[in-house]
Design brief:
Layout lengths: L1 E4 L12 E4 L3 H13 L4 H21 L5 H12 L6 H8 L7
Antiparallel strand pairs: 1-2
Length: about 100
């Protein structure tokens, strides 16, 4: 289970937020080895890895790749939007998942 504690940030921009994670000994050993191979401290390695995964998860919800045929169909749908309906208006007012 992860715990998150927040302390006040100083004007110096120090990293004052703390993230504590419990892990199996085998996983910790693997992470430590990987960090060592990269010349990083365990915490640096874990934060960099977690950041990459977080960015990928967010971009996965914001970036879409289409082949040429699907792209043309998508453009055609944009040029001929459906008539407004209460359900569509409700959907369009919802905050996107990636902003939550």
């Amino acid at each position: 289970m992860a715990q998150h504690a927040h302390t006040d940030r100083s004007a110096s921009g120090r990293k004052d937020d703390v993230i504590q994670i419990r892990a199996a000994a085998e996983l910790k050993a693997m992470l430590s080895r990987a960090a060592s191979l990269r010349g990083q401290k365990l915490s640096e390695f874990m934060l960099a890895s977690a950041r990459r995964e977080a960015e990928a998860a967010i971009l996965d919800q914001r970036t879409f790749f289409l082949d040429a045929e699907s792209h043309e169909k998508f453009l055609a749908m944009l040029d001929a939007p459906p008539a407004p309906s209460p359900a569509l208006e409700k959907l369009m007012k919802r905050e996107p998942l990636w902003n939550r």
